[in-house]
Every structure is written in C-alpha cells, then in structure tokens.
C-alpha cells in the first residue's frame, strides 16, 4: 500500500518544515501529492497546511482543507480550528473566521490573538463601514473568559478604539493596563498616543507623548 511508504509522523514533520520555510506553498504541493499517492493524512497534518495557506492567503486551498477536515471529522481538533480561524482571517473572510472561533469552547491566548488580529487586518474597511466596534465586545468576552491579554492584544485594542473614535473604551483599557501593571512597550505606547489624538484628547496625548520622549532619552 502507498500509505505504508511514509510514516505519518515523518510526512507531518516535512509539512511543518515547509510551512515555516520561505516558500510555504511547497507544503500545499506536497499535500496534493500525498493525497494523490494515498499517503496517510491525519489531524496533525492539517495545522501546518493551514499555516501555509494563511501565509500566502490561499483561500481555495484553505477551503479544500476545510472540506477535508470536515470529511475526516478533524474540525473538532482545537489546533485545526485555530488554523482555520487564521486562514479565514488572512483571506479576508472575517465572518467565517469568527464563526469558526465561536465553535471553539476552550480558547487560549494564541486563538484570541489570531481572532483579534483578524479584525485588525481590515482596519480601514471596518472603520469605514462602522463595524470595527466588533472587536471591542470580543475583548470584553476575552476578559470574562479569564484570559489575560498580552501587549500585542492591547496594541490592537487601542488601535481599534482610535479607529472607532471610542475614547471611553480606550481610556478604560489604558486604566486596565496601569492597574494590572502590564508591561508597556514602545509600540503600545505609540498606539495610546494615536488613540488619544484620534479621539481628540489632546492633553492626554501630550502626557503620553512626554512619556515616550522620556523613554527615548533613557536609552
């Protein structure tokens, strides 16, 4: 039998390496050959393949993987679900990404980051259409789930507040950052400045900007 030629763990290792390489599309080409030759493809094969699809925004290949995952009952795997969320987000199908995200009951910081970043990828269109506020309830849900946001998530949230012109929510998150002694890096500090400027809070902007200057002088 063809599937006996390559052990699944070896083929999966190959797929992982290719998905991380400078040419992730090769992982998808290898997958096509594996299907053609009848090699074993298990739930561990899908995350690297979805990662490859995400990196090159290959929607058609990602949809094919989604169909295969459903057929083989792999969609329940949390890593497959997270991979599908990332793929849909990267390809601009944010509603499909959210539907898949909502189907995962247990969500770690990686899953939350991917979903929130998905909204962040389409900042302009969501702001223009007045839909960027969708990310704000998502952050509240994250907090209720007892998942601690990291600096990357805070930067995305603060940027969301700026584009939604939601000073109240932005200030609340700034207070949350301070109260929880979250480490504020340069990118997050800049995001806060932009948020206050965008919301018309000039005084707060000047205070934050002064803090940035102090940080620069300290190095």
UniProtKB/TrEMBL annotation:
GO terms for biological process: RNA modification. InterPro entries: PPR_At4g14850-like_plant (IPR046960), PPR_rpt (IPR002885), TPR-like_helical_dom_sf (IPR011990). The keyword Repeat applies. The keyword Repeat applies. GO terms for molecular function: RNA binding. Keywords: Repeat. Pfam families: PPR, PPR_2. It comes from the Eukaryota. Transmembrane segments: none annotated. PANTHER family: PENTATRICOPEPTIDE REPEAT-CONTAINING PROTEIN. This is Tetratricopeptide-like helical domain superfamily. The lineage of its organism: Eukaryota, Viridiplantae, Streptophyta, Embryophyta, Tracheophyta.
């Amino acid at each position: 039998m063809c599937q006996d030629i390559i052990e699944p763990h070896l083929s999966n290792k190959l797929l992982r390496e290719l998905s991380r390489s400078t040419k992730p599309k090769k992982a998808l080409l290898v997958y096509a050959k594996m299907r053609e030759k009848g090699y074993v493809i298990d739930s561990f094969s899908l995350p690297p393949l979805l990662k490859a699809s995400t990196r090159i925004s290959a929607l058609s290949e990602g949809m094919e993987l989604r169909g295969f995952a459903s057929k083989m009952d792999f969609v329940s795997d949390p890593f497959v679900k997270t991979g599908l969320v990332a793929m849909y987000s990267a390809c601009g199908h944010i509603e499909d990404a959210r539907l898949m995200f909502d189907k995962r009951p247990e969500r770690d910081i990686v899953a939350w980051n991917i979903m929130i970043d998905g909204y962040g990828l389409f900042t302009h269109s969501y702001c223009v259409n007045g839909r960027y506020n969708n990310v704000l309830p998502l952050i509240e849900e994250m907090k209720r789930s007892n998942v601690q946001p990291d600096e990357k998530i805070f930067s995305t949230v603060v940027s969301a507040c700026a584009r939604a012109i939601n000073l109240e929510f932005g200030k609340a998150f700034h207070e949350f950052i301070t109260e929880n002694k979250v480490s504020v890096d340069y990118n997050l500090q800049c995001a806060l400045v932009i948020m206050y400027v965008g919301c018309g809070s000039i005084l707060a902007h000047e205070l934050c900007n002064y803090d940035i200057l102090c940080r620069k002088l300290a190095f």
